[in-house]
Amino acid sequence: MVRLIRLILAMAVLAVFSIFSTSVIAAEAPSPATTSDGGSATPSFAAGLAVAVAAIFF
C-alpha cells in the first residue's frame, strides 16, 4: 500500500516536472531543438529528467 502511494506521488511529481521543463525549454528556445534526423530533442530531454527524478523516489 505504501509503495502504491509513493508510486502515485512520484507520477504526479513527474507529470508536473515534465510539463514545467518542456514549457521552460520552449520559452527559452525560440526555434525548436531538433535532432540530426529531424525529430524534436525536447521530449527525450524531458523523459531523461523524469527518469532521474523517478530514481530519487525509488
Describe the structure.
- This protein is mostly helical and about 60 residues long.
- It has one domain.
- Helix content is about 75%, strand content about 0%.
- The protein has 2 helices and no strands.
- Keywords: Signal.
Q: Determine the oligomeric state from the structure.
A: single chain
Number of strands: 0
Class from secondary-structure proportions: mainly alpha
Radius of gyration: 14 Å
The low-pLDDT segments are: none
User: Averaging pLDDT over every residue, what do you get?
Assistant: 69
Number of helical stretches of at least 4 residues? 2
Helix content: over 70%
Overall form = elongated
Q: Give the distance, in angstroms, between the N- and C-terminal Cα atoms.
A: 15 Å
The major sheet is characterized as: none
The amount of beta strand, in percent, is under 5%
The ordered H/E elements are HH
* Overall structural domain count: 1
